[in-house]
Amino acid sequence: MADSSFDIVSKVDQMEAENAVNQAQKELAQRYDFKGVGASVEWTGEKLLLKASAEERVKAVLEVLEAKFIKRGISLRSLDAGEPFPSGKEYRIEISLKNGISSEDAKKISKIIRDEAPKSVKSQIQGDELRVQSKSRDDLQSTMALLKGKDLEVALQFVNFR
Fold first, then answer.
1. pTM for this entry
2. Which PANTHER family does the record associate with it (predicted)?
3. What is the CATH number of the domain that holds 141?
4. Beta strands in the chain, from DSSP E residues, in sequence order
5. Which of 29, 63, 139, 152 would give a disulfide with 118, using CB separation of 3.0 to 4.6 Å?
């Protein structure tokens, strides 16, 4: 019998992210506490730019955006938000979306699998994802549960379970 396997990836659904940004923009336009403070969210392909007239306001814009991402099922671990910085008369926060698993994170995940998963489970790094294989599907499912329970810095999705 052939080995069963699954892939561990870290990807953000672009449509869901765009929908979350659009919802945040609508809420900023409607809420009374954001009137007259120049609060806005701009999407430029890979990066998000949040703007407001004061540091507290731009942090509030970030909270609104994070709430929309959570409602859309996107993990906040896939957001890489910087610190608020002044730019002219306004404050800005730049946010980038993390796609793919970095080699350091892949090595950490691989080490967790080697040390704590059942012995029949093997993992190998393939670019920005990991392939996990075993003869037993039960061992693979216990490996998934193990990784879900760990507090890692990346948002993990499990795909191609065969």
1. 0.82
2. UPF0234 PROTEIN YAJQ
3. 3.30.70.860
4. 4-9, 40-44, 47-52, 79-81, 85-87, 90-97, 122-126, 129-134, 157-159
5. 139
- Asked whether residue 55 falls in the same domain as residue 88, the answer is yes
Alpha-carbon distances, residue 105 vs 70, 130, 153 (angstroms): 23, 10, 8
Total domain count, the chain: 2
Residues 116 and 86 in one domain: no
Amino acid letter for position 50 = L
On whether both 92 and 114 belong to a single domain, the answer is no
50: nearest Cα among 99, 91, 89, 15:
91
